[in-house]
Write a structure and sequence with these properties.
CATH superfamily of the domain at 8-198: Histidine kinase-like ATPase, C-terminal domain
Structural class: alpha+beta
Number of strands: 25
Radius of gyration: 29 Å
Strand content: 15-25%
CATH architecture of the domain at 8-198: 2-Layer Sandwich
Distance between the termini: 86 Å
Mean pLDDT: 83
Bound molecules: adenosine-5'-diphosphate, magnesium ion
CATH topology of the domain at 8-198: Heat Shock Protein 90
Largest sheet: 9 strands, mixed
């Protein structure tokens, strides 16, 4: 075939292949356009999962009548004018290809009106060709209608799924946008029924409500507020408590300058931050907003803009890791508890709002990190999540087991009463069935899993002791020879200190061979070859590694588990109180080394409710 320039319609249909995959991708482009136009309210209407109709209506600035046709041509945009603009872009769109691509694969109508215009103007696109503009009725703002998606491209249409599936994709897409653009109201209607309404949120309470609207109470009542700023990076948002981890990585939202992205570097940093508090195979939930100078991040690396490239990925990685690691260290048992309000059904409601902390829009930055506030609702295993009948049975059992008079406990209570300060985890009353500690607090009782708590305390101590010592190297009697790629061998040769720091002694002995002569002493017996290969991959890919530390921690965690008090060991009241005080002082003591909760509480208010008091 001779070479020929393709017709415009075909060019747009090809481009649509990259940008328009399904109804949700159309909704993404159209809602992002509405947000870019400054809309405060965006309505999305779907029929048949968006396959038959997608209508997006906004109250934004609108498009001038004489620019409507231009908006529908390829590479026409009002958002950038130069390379310099592109490098500092803060709008969601900038490629100028969404409208022509969508119009090329659907029956398309664009109606818009600016404030200056006397009436609205409407342009229809049929078979990829824009018809002459017509006057129309429409308030200031824009409505785009997309009917019969892919009617002209049967091959694409066959890839569409059932209505329900396509709707679910749109729903998730809108949730993702709703979590980022909290000051804008978003609504979703499906087949004539209103299905979602995200109300505009202007303060912390509103944002908290919107978070709950988007992700449910289960997340919003069991999360930490994160706020951290350093080196021009500003991170805010919410991270789920380790004890509220999920079996799927389905509640992970990450935004860079308001744009939802998936990023390998960030995913890795988050995973590492949770490594120490999460059970293997569980996934944390999070909603995190990173604000960064747009010049330090390239958003033009993916046609649908799902990915970005950080100029300094290593810095972002370390910043994210440190911020989250520190926030998670605050999960001390009993730390700054805001009492969770419990509604009539016994479900805890997160009305507790962290003072001062919380999401602050970029620019209004305050470095208030460390105030990562912590509140605790019903964790999966806690009594709050149990049906009332079960709670009653549990506590009836407790009541029976509590000693009638315990001189030491009452002493403690007297001390507390006279000093006026009850520590957060209170004073021990009794040991229950050799497994739990029952303790009286200022406003109720708590139950502690003594083995789980002791295990975490021992683990944190071992870690602290270890990090003070520095890494000792164990010299291998017989060096181990390891085959690597030439790139890896080059890296080893060029960076001896990186390995020495971790306790490895290595030498390149051939173009693709290294010789391992020493390993971190504490890790004697681990598969040193595999560990080294993992370390190498991390250092090359990410510029840093925590594998040695992770391995070491795993070992320390096992040691701590073996050393921790076993079930059925009798503890005296002073021993129990000592454990409670240790918990209050130990980082991450809200969960054991495997991510299970170490304690749970029952407030007087909850007890009163159980006994129908005060009604
Ligand atoms: P991009 O968003 O990358 O600029 P699009 O093809 O999505 O490209 O849109 C082209 C142009 O049309 C935009 O730059 C904008 O000026 C205008 N536009 C599109 N949708 C809207 C809208 N809802 N409100 C106002 N202007 C819009
Ligand atoms: Mg756009």
């Amino acid at each position: 075939m001779p070479i020929r320039a393709l017709p415009e319609v075909l060019i747009n249909q090809i481009a649509a292949g990259e940008v328009v995959e399904r109804p949700a991708s159309v909704v993404k482009e159209l809602v992002e356009n509405a947000l870019d136009a400054g809309a405060m309210r965006v309505d999305v209407e779907l029929e048949e999962g968006g396959i038959r109709l997608i209508r997006v209506r906004d109250d934004g600035a609108g498009i001038q009548a004489d620019e409507l046709a231009l908006a529908l041509t390829r590479h026409a945009t009002s958002k950038i004018a130069s390379l310099d603009d592109l490098e500092g872009v803060l709008s969601l769109g900038f490629r100028g290809e969404a409208l022509p691509s969508i119009a090329a694969v659907s029956r398309f109508a664009l109606t818009s009106r600016t404030e200056q215009a006397e009436h609205a103007t409407r342009v229809l696109v049929e078979d990829g060709r824009a018809q002459p503009a017509q006057p129309a009725q429409h308030p200031v703002g824009t409505t785009v209608e997309v009917r019969d998606l892919f009617y002209s491209v049967p091959a694409r249409r066959r890839f569409l799924r059932a209505e329900r599936t396509e709707f679910a994709h749109v729903d998730e897409l809108l949730r993702t946008l709703a979590l980022a653009h909290m000051r804008r109201e978003l609504r979703l209607t499906h087949n004539g029924k209103a299905v979602r309404s995200y109300r505009a949120a202007v303060d912390m309470g509103g944002r908290q409500r919107r978070l709950a609207d988007a992700l449910g109470e289960a997340f919003s009542s069991q999360c930490l507020v994160v706020e951290h700023e350093s080196a021009g990076l500003h991170l805010t948002g919410w991270i789920g408590l380790p004890t509220a981890s999920r079996s799927q990585a389905d509640q992970q939202y990450f935004y860079v300058n308001g744009r939802a992205v998936r990023d390998r570097v960030v995913t890795h940093a988050v995973r590492q931050a949770y490594a120490d508090v999460l059970f293997h195979g569980r996934h944390p939930a999070f909603v995190l907003y990173l604000d960064i100078d747009p010049r330090r991040v390239d958003v033009n690396v993916h046609p649908a803009k799902h990915e970005v490239r950080f100029r300094d990925g290593r810095l972002v990685h370390d910043f994210m890791f440190r911020s989250l690691h520190e926030a998670l260290a605050q999960t001390r048992a009993g730390a700054s508890l805001a009492s969770p309000l419990v509604d009539a059904a016994g479900v805890s409601v997160a009305t507790a709002v962290a003072e001062g902390a919380g999401w602050v829009p970029a620019g209004a930055a305050q470095a208030t990190f460390g105030a990562a506030s912590y509140w605790r609702g019903g964790s999966p295993q806690s009594s709050l999540a149990l049906p009332v009948r079960e709670q009653m049975a549990t506590y009836a059992a407790l009541y029976g087991a509590a000693p009638a008079a315990n001189p030491e406990a009452s002493n403690a209570a007297v001390t507390a009463a006279t000093s006026g300060a009850v520590p957060p985890l209170g004073f021990a009353l009794a040991q229950l069935h050799g497994v739990y500690i029952l303790s009286e607090t200022a406003d109720g009782v708590i139950v502690v899993d003594m083995h789980a708590a002791h295990e975490r305390i021992g683990y944190e101590r071992l870690k602290t002791a270890q990090s003070g010592e520095g890494i000792r190297v164990l010299h291998l009697l017989v060096p181990e020879s390891i085959a690597v790629s030439a790139r890896e061998a080059d890296f080893v040769e060029a960076n001896p200190p990186a390995f020495a720091e971790l306790g490895f002694e290595l030498q390149r002995v051939a173009p693709t061979q290294i010789s391992l002569r020493g390993i971190p002493a504490l890790l004697e017996g681990v598969d040193a070859r595999q560990l080294l290969l993992d370390v190498l991959a991390d250092l090359i890919e990410l510029g840093s590694t925590r594998r040695v530390e992770e391995q070491r921690n795993e070992l320390l965690s096992t040691m701590a588990c073996h050393a921790a008090v076993r079930a059925n060991r009798r503890l005296s009241i002073p021993e129990m109180n000592a454990l409670l005080r240790d918990m209050e002082a130990t980082e991450r003591s809200g969960q054991c080394n495997h991510g299970r909760p170490t304690w749970t509480r029952l407030s007087m208010a909850e007890l009163d409710r159980l006994f129908l008091r005060g009604r």
